[in-house]
Specification:
Radius of gyration: 13 Å
Order of helices and strands: EHHEEEEH
CATH architecture: 2-Layer Sandwich
Number of domains: 1
CATH class: Alpha Beta
Helix content: 10-25%
Strand content: 25-35%
Structural class: alpha+beta
Shape: globular
Distance between the termini: 22 Å
Amino acid sequence: MRFVFARERDGKIHFRKRHPEVTVREVKEVFEFRMAIQPAYGGAWKGVGRTRSRRFLVVIFKWGKKKDYIFILTAYPAKRKHVEVYLRTTGGIQ
């Protein structure tokens, strides 16, 4: 799967400006595991998942026109309520 990231005017990846502790690698890892996905505003989706290091992230994304790529709008560390939704939806940690 190909990933495209939203960028600021200065060319930097959008979520890295506000959340520098979240890496591009971690965002890609979230899509390797089970996710809890909810509809978000404007046709976007909110995915809550974990990385290989078992860190939980929230990723706001849109599918490409033919679902051949994923456009990442933003990503940030999950709060407790996000993790609770993940655990309820997916049935626990895999």
